[in-house]
Amino acid sequence: MTKQLSSLKEYMGNAAQNGTTPPDLSWIEDLKTLIGAEAVLVDEETIDLHSYDAWPVAAKWKNQGKRPFAPDVVVQARSAEQVSNILKWANENNVPVVPWGGGSSVTGQGLAAKGGIMLDTLSMDQVIALSDESLMVKVQAGKYGHKLEEELNARGYTLNHSPQSLDRSTVGGWVATRAMGQFSSRYGGIEDLVVTYTVVLPTGEIVETMNVPRAAVGPDLRHVFMGAEGTMGIITDVTLKIFPVTEYRMFEAVTFNSVEAGVTVMRKIMRLGLKPFLVRFYDVVEARHAMQDKTFDKCAMFLGFEGVETVALAEYAAVMDLCAAEGGQKVGPTPVEAWMARRFDFSTVENILAESGGLAETIEIAHFWDGILETYYELKEALAPYAAEVLGHFSHVYPQGTSLYVILLGKDADDATAEANLLEIWDVAMSICVKNGAAISHHHGSGLARLPYVSDALGSSMPVLQKIKTALDPQDIMNPGKLGL
Fold first, then answer.
1. How confident is the model at residue 2 (pLDDT cuts 50, 70, 90)?
2. pLDDT for 182-196, tens place per residue?
3. In percent, how much of the chain has pLDDT > 90?
4. Is residue 30 exposed (0-12), middle (13-18) or buried (19+ Cβ within 10 Å)?
């Protein structure tokens, strides 16, 4: 029997109460002695910068001048060896450490729930090696995604990993949060693109996972740290697969009269083994935004095909047949090309959140094909009272199922009301997902937003995660208070 879910509102209230007693910060002077005072930053501007990520709740905190999860110090890491020294010292002195990349998490993953050291990795941003023959690039973890993509493009390569946060997220952050890109239907998630990486354990050991194309030598240890949100160690460099820039690419937008029709097409695309690199399907409400037409009254699917021209054209023809069978109508490539040009733009959400009382949230979940529509309709109905618009789209598709984004846009009386409603929105959405057996996150991770629901989501496997955490991090110094640990 599933235990009674504690709420995110309750957790945040407890966290505020726990933070009322001033901590003992005498350890900061010892840290300065260890690595040099110039590397230990305690100025107000730096602390403030590392106290908020891209979670909408954090935006509401910032608007109100609240800072519930601030680190005590920020250290700008320069090398794996320096990270090792810091973690060894922190483990011996029981000081929390939270890794920080681009600060682009939308769920509070990188916020310092217990204070301590914020270990900023942005200074570790060099490309270490590139193999033209084996199609791999080794890069330090603090490299911004768009910078790496630009360097690869100049040499005729691409990552084929394009999260919306490409220009504000880092390579190490992708691995730590189990990130997903917009072209996943063809190239997969970060777990499919990582060859190996180096991680510093909480006790200071520097470890590289097995560096081979594939191996059958015990469990794949890459997955111990991938998606662990910094709770098991700090990733310092990553080796990724790269791809030659494609020779041919084409787009198409198709309209449908119902959500069911579009979802059926997506399911059949994957069932037949077709590989469009872009598959996104919008309900009527979000289609108005995607098509940039407030009067638009149909659902819309954005499709992209690439690779060898003859193969791409054949896949296009096969997918168009599937669309036509479900009443789909082609409207040409222009809407998709316009979306491709603005696909990294966060301004709509950011502008709403900057306003007093502005409410905007994105919740992504996943389910099997036989459960996704019921969950979609239940989420849309339950969340409708909280926002002027509740948008929905399906993307990141698999033969077994799909992810679903539910996006809320609205306006409350003030930021305090918006904050309270955002917390309640998470409680409502996560409760529905747990009840329906859906994944509570597809790729944004757990962070603080999903914290009360992690144990329910993992079920009987939760003790395995706890045992791994205890073995690797006996002092619980690494990003404590996350993943339900």
1. very low
2. 999 999 999 999 999
3. 94
4. exposed
Which one-letter DSSP state was computed for residue 443? S
Tens of pLDDT, residues 154-177: 999 999 999 999 999 999 999 999
Per-residue buried b or exposed e for 383-392, using 16+ beta carbons within 10 Å of the residue's own CB: beebbeebbb
- Residue 473 in contact with residue 97, Cβ under 8 Å? no
Instruction: Give the dihedral of Cα atoms 55, 60, 64, 65; nearest 10 deg.
Output: 10
Q: 249-342 maps to which CATH number?
A: 3.30.70.3450
Q: Residue 17 pLDDT > 90, yes or no?
A: no
Alpha-carbon distance of 254 to 300, in angstroms, equals 6
Which one of 3.30.465.10, 1.10.510.10, 3.40.50.300, 3.30.420.270 gives the CATH number of domain 127-244? Answer: 3.30.465.10
- Sequence ranges of the chain with CATH classification 3.30.465.10: 127-244
- Please give the pLDDT value at position 22: 67
Please say if the pLDDT value at position 295 is more than 50.
yes
Q: Does domain 347-444 have CATH number 3.90.180.10?
A: no
Residues 101 and 110 sit within 8 Å (Cβ to Cβ): yes
Q: In what order do the strands lie in the sheet with 194-200?
A: 127-131, 136-140, 234-241, 194-200, 206-208
pLDDT of 193: 98
- Centre a 10 Å sphere on the Cβ of residue 399 and count the other Cβ atoms it contains: 11
- The strand pair at 127-131 and 157-158 is best described as unpaired
Model pLDDT for residues 87-142, shown as the tens digit of each residue: 999 999 999 999 999 999 999 999 999 999 999 999 999 999 999 999 999 999 99
- Residues recorded for the chain: 485
CA distances from 190 to 195, 245, 256, 325, 332 (A): 10, 18, 31, 34, 31
Provide the 3-class DSSP secondary structure of residue 108. coil
